[in-house]
Amino acid sequence: MALSASSDSTRAITPRDIRARKGHTPLVCLTAYTTPIAKLVDGHCDIVLVGDSVGMVLHGLPSTLGVTLDMMIMHGRAVRRGLERALMVVDMPFGAYEESPEQAFRNAAKLMAETGCAAVKLEGGESMAETVRFLVARGVPVMGHVGLTPQAVNGFGGYRVQGRGADADRIQRDAAAVADAGAFSVVLEKMPEPLARRITAEVAIPTIGIGASPACDGQILVVDDMLGLFGAFKPKFVKRYAALADEAETAIAAYAREVRERSFPAAGHVFEDSARDTGSRKSGGGDAA
After folding, report:
1. Which element (helix H / strand E) includes 198?
2. All domains of the chain in start order, with CATH
3. In this predicted model, what pLDDT tens digit does every residue of 61-103 receive, in sequence order?
4. Fewest CB within a 10 Å sphere: which of 32, 97, 223, 283?
5. Model-level pTM?
6. What are 247's strand-pairing partners?
7. Given a cut of 60, is residue 15 above it in pLDDT?
8. Quick one: what percent of the chain has pLDDT higher than 90?
9. Of residues 99, 102, 130, 189, which has the active-site annotation?
10. What sign results for the dihedral spanned by CA atoms 208, 213, 216, 222?
């Protein structure tokens, strides 16, 4: 029986569980890059992706191309400490797998050993099918990624919708190639809705949509996008479920005002000359007297 979002909430989800969810309850997927966010999303998500989007989201890079294997390992370790149930997948960064299947295996093995992730994700379709097959045959579960593949943004000439017109055949072949090579799921990014719907109906593995179709077997968003942590930045395919950037700026402005007015810290935030006044926090160095 396929694993549902409500069944056996204590057991860690595996790539095999995800593959078995094809055509069943939609898969819930978000990115995470830190331990606190991993803890927040773990109870709600089936898959948590440590995406190379971390380069743009947390490191201020202009694209994902500057992300290194060491960066992915660092953030993967942080996310692993916050997860108990969700399947953790880590992106293979640009340059870590394209040279050869052997290179891909060395770096995938390093990612898995040093982060504790259960699977890796790599971009590309037909051109990466041999690599996907090589990894899967050696015990590395692989999530594919076709359509708009951000690591190839320079070749695409920007973050353009992929798969319009005659280009749809290429995207379909790419999705079929990674599925046939043994990937347990595939991300479909930024493509026409009818194409994503058609691919979902044709491939035997779950499709995870981002700017694709509600017919996909699951959906993924960058967590900072859906929480509204990026201010004015909002791609068409993102729905904001909160406006935390606005709330944070309001809070920071209030803090700055109170510091300048000397209304913070108030009496309740400082220590008296008494051994019984030890503060309220039980752990951490911030309240050490």
Report:
1. helix 193-202
2. 15-226 (3.20.20.60), 243-289 (no CATH)
3. 999 999 999 999 999 999 999 999 999 999 999 999 999 999 9
4. 283
5. 0.90
6. none
7. yes
8. 81
9. 189
10. positive
Q: Helix and strand tally (H, E) in the chain?
A: 11, 8
Q: Are 122 and 50 in contact (CB under 8 A)?
A: no
Cα–Cα distance, 283 to 8 (Å, whole number): 32
Q: What are phi and psi of 50, to 5 degrees?
A: -85, 90
Cβ atoms within 10 A of the Cβ of 187, count?
Answer: 29
Q: Is the pLDDT of residue 225 over 90?
A: yes
**Tokens 């779950």 identify what position?**
206
Residues 132 and 142: their CA atoms lie apart, in Å, by 7
Instruction: For residue 225, give both structure tokens.
Output: 């996008």
Task: Check if 98 is active-site.
Answer: no
Q: What whole-number distance in Å separates Cα of residue 191 and Cα of residue 148?
A: 7
10 Å Cβ neighbour count for 204? 10
Over residues 160-206, the pLDDT tens digits come to: 888 999 899 999 999 999 999 999 999 999 999 999 999 999 999 99
C-alpha to C-alpha distance for 50 and 87, rounded to whole angstroms: 11
Instruction: Give the Cα separation of 126 and 189 in Å (integer).
Output: 16
Alpha carbon dihedral 77, 78, 84, 86, in 10-degree steps, equals -80
Which is more confident, 129 or 278?
Answer: 129
Tokens 């109906």 locate to 201
Q: What end-to-end distance do the CA atoms of the chain give, in Å?
A: 56
Size (the chain), residues: 289
